[in-house]
Amino acid sequence: MAYEHILYEARGPVALITLNRPERLNAWTQTMEDEVIDAVNAAAADPAVGCVVVTGAGRGFCAGADIGGWDQRIKSSSRPPSKMLVERGSPEVPAAITRGKPIIAAVNGVAVGVGLTMTLACDIRLASTEARFSARFVKVGLTPECGSSRYLPLVAGLPNALFLALTGRIIDAEEALQRRLVDRLVPPDQLLPEAMKLAEEIAANPRDAVWAAKRLLHQNATESDLRRVTTLESYSIRERQSEPDHREAVTAFLEKRTPTFNRGG
Fold it and tell me: What is the span of the domain harbouring residue 178?
């Protein structure tokens, strides 16, 4: 698929997705959303890919939704949201990210609104020391979206989630680290190399086990029934025990050598 608002590049075992509207600080559009979902699904279907990195072109990661057309929409339509949207929401972006292969967000600049919330469903978040963050929805009379009313408390904790959502304040990278929005800060010129290095480390592990571990953690993070949690873990372990990579790991340990895993491609 030819993309208009993103770039997609396979770098060995890592797929690099770049939000690519630098003249608008990569402001989010419906086209960008559709393309990100397609690219994440393409990486999931590619046996040569073991991990995904998503970043932004130019100075920004994503400045939030492109509000250029909001005024026209407000003036031209007084209709309420569709019943389907009210009842079902629009979970496509976080759903694609959480069911896809491991995804690292490399936040290179401003990450506002959906530019912040879409990273919350990612598995690991690295940020440039020059990045800035804001859950700015209340500043434009809106409320959090893109699954962030679940993921913001899960990632940052409820007190931090409430602070960010209720103030709409823009915070710098150091405060984002303190508030647990990101896992690590990196100098700007080292951000992408560090993200790629981490992605390659993840991709070097047995692919099926990595992907299964990701899905298990995302699924069980909000599961209240401990019996179901442990049951799902048991099912997953039994499946992995029958896989060649597990047998290879055990054999390599006994033979005191480095295991050779089947990583596709």
Answer: 6-69+82-203
Q: Is 195 exposed, middle or buried (0-12, 13-18, 19+ CB in 10 A)?
A: buried
Q: Are 143 and 228 part of one and the same domain?
A: no
Q: Mean of the pLDDT values across residues 4-24?
A: 97
pLDDT, tens only, 132-163: 999 999 999 999 999 999 999 999 999 999 99
Which pLDDT belongs to residue 67? 74
Residues near 200 by Cβ (< 8 Å), separated by ≥ 6? 12, 13, 14, 51
- Residues 213 and 86 grouped into a single domain: no
DSSP β-bridge partners for residue 104: 53, 124
The reply to whether 260 falls in a domain is: no
Residue 87 maps to which CATH number?
A: 3.90.226.10
In angstroms, the CA 185 to CA 167 distance is: 23
- Number of Cβ atoms within 10 Å of the Cβ of 255: 9
User: In this predicted structure, what is the pLDDT of residue 85?
Assistant: 42
Q: How far apart are CA 69 and CA 102, in angstroms?
A: 34
Calculate the alpha carbon distances from 131 to 91, 197, 215, 262 in Å.
26, 20, 29, 37
**Interatomic CA distance for residues 204 and 62, integer angstroms:** 29
Average pLDDT, the chain: 91
